[in-house]
């Protein structure tokens, strides 16, 4: 399901001239931290070490034909190449065409088109190479204009009708990470099958799909989410059930399951129960505490004990505070997003700081200014970088640094002893 563009993280541009025609191409994305691509072709936001969420790349084409006749856009061939100038990825269906654009507008002599990309395909070019995890790829473009849509494409480049294979750099460098498994459900719309209040007939649990994300920040920048309301008198085991599952659950995708949720409480429990044709219902609980009310939390459920045959799973039941035994007084509104299957454990709860060294934490996070680092053993210097990788602050090692002068946003704090963490400046 397509996620809608939320905001632009960074913009990369290339300009190609065809006689009196100027063709500006820009690449932007909705990532909050760092744009990467998985070895199987998914654009991702690397929000923490080995933690990724789906990303959307926007390609914009602005053709200013000035005094010339308006040309037709035949195609945009936009490969990702490695350092050896070998093709690795390309847009699915080979190239971007005008008929595939999601928007098309004309103002004066400027025609603008945009495309949204969530995935690329491995380039079948005979000289192409497979992606290697850790390598950095260049996003290139070769924009071709046709002077007659009914004729064979004629490239007009610098006044010549001779086609060219020269590529322009968009300036985007994208790191390859390990294969990625997309969410089983991202709640961005579609013909999904849901049930609620399964344990009672009182209708005290209700759901609404396609609700605008009430907090598009942190670990969840999705446009749409699922809203679940436990109304007055709802039983603790009243729950939401998902029965339309795509992609299908497979042992190849692992025996861990994750979901993102937003709670009206600072502490509590979320439960996931798996069931289906080949398995009895087995419930796992995830407890959270000390969180900031309204922030998104990433929950993990471990089914690696083989108590569940995941190949037979056809439904997911999600409940809040099942074990409490307490009925709801008033109402409680929760939000759910991105149910996903994973090969191994690796979830970091929102209340945990991302770090690579034991016994080192950073707080408060988010922060309005002063940030405390609990353990600076082995550190001599500390740098703070923005999402483009540009160093914006440097400090001598200290248990407290001041980032109050930085604009609000996401930053990476990196020490010379290898410690690294994401810091949010409010």
Provide a descriptive summary of the structure in words.
The protein has 426 residues and is mainly beta. The chain folds into three domains: 11-177, no CATH class; 194-342, Jelly Rolls, CATH 2.60.120; 362-425, Immunoglobulin-like (Sandwich). The protein is built from no helices and 31 strands. The strands form six sheets. Strands 3, 4, 5, 7, 8, 9, 12, 13 and 14 form a nine-stranded mixed sheet that branches. The protein is globular.
**Main beta sheet, described?**
9 strands, mixed
The average pLDDT is: 75
Proportion of helical residues: under 10%
Shape annotation: globular
Quaternary form = single chain
Uncertain runs: 1-9, 14-18, 146-167, 346-356
DSSP summary, beta strand count: 31
Overall structural domain count: 3
Structural class: mainly beta
> How widely separated are the two ends?
31 Å
Evaluate the radius of gyration.
24 Å
Number of helices: 0
Amount of beta strand: over 45%
Feature tags:
426 residues; mainly beta; Immunoglobulin-like; nine-stranded mixed β-sheet; globular; single chain; Jelly Rolls; 3 domains; five-stranded antiparallel β-sheet; 0% helix; 46% strand; disordered N terminus
């Amino acid at each position: 399901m397509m996620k809608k563009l939320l905001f632009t993280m960074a913009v990369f541009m290339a300009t190609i001239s065809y006689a009196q025609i100027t063709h500006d191409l820009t690449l932007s994305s909705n990532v909050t931290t760092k744009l990467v691509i998985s070895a199987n072709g998914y654009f991702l936001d690397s929000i923490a070490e080995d933690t990724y969420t789906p990303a959307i790349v926007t390609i914009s084409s602005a053709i200013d034909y000035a005094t010339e006749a308006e040309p037709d856009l035949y195609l945009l061939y936009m490969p990702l190449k490695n350092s050896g100038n070998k093709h690795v990825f390309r847009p699915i269906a080979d190239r971007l065409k005008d008929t595939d654009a999601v928007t098309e507008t004309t103002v004066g002599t400027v025609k603008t088109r945009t495309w949204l990309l969530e995935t690329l395909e491995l380039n079948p070019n005979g000289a192409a190479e497979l992606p290697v995890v850790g390598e950095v790829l260049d996003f290139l473009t070769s924009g071709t204009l046709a002077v007659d849509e009914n004729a064979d494409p004629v490239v007009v480049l610098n006044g010549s009708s001779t086609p060219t294979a020269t590529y322009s750099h968009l300036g985007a460098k994208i790191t390859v990470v390990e294969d990625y498994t997309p969410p089983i459900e991202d709640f961005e719309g579609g013909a999904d099958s849901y049930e609620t209040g399964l344990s009672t007939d009182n209708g005290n649990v209700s759901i609404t799909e396609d609700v605008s994300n009430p907090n598009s920040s942190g670990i969840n920048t999705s446009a749409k989410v699922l809203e679940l309301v436990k109304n007055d008198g709802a039983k603790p085991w009243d729950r939401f059930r998902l029965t339309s599952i795509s992609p299908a659950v497979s042992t190849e995708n692992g025996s861990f399951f994750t979901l993102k949720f937003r709670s009206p409480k600072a502490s509590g429990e979320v439960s996931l129960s798996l069931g289906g044709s080949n398995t009895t219902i087995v419930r796992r609980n995830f407890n959270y505490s000390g969180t900031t009310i309204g922030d998104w939390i990433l929950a993990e459920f471990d089914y690696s004990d083989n108590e569940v045959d995941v190949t037979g799973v056809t439904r997911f039941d999600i409940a809040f505070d099942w074990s409490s035994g307490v009925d709801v007084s008033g109402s409680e509104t929760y939000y759910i997003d991105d149910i996903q299957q994973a090969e191994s454990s690796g979830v970091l709860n929102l209340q945990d700081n991302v770090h690579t060294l034991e016994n080192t934490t950073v707080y408060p996070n988010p922060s309005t200014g002063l940030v405390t680092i609990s353990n600076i053993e082995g550190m001599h210097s500390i740098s703070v970088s923005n999402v483009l990788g540009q160093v914006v602050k440097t400090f001598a090692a200290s248990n407290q640094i001041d980032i109050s002068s930085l604009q609000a946003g996401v930053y990476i704090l990196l020490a010379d002893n290898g410690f690294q963490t994401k810091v949010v400046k409010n």
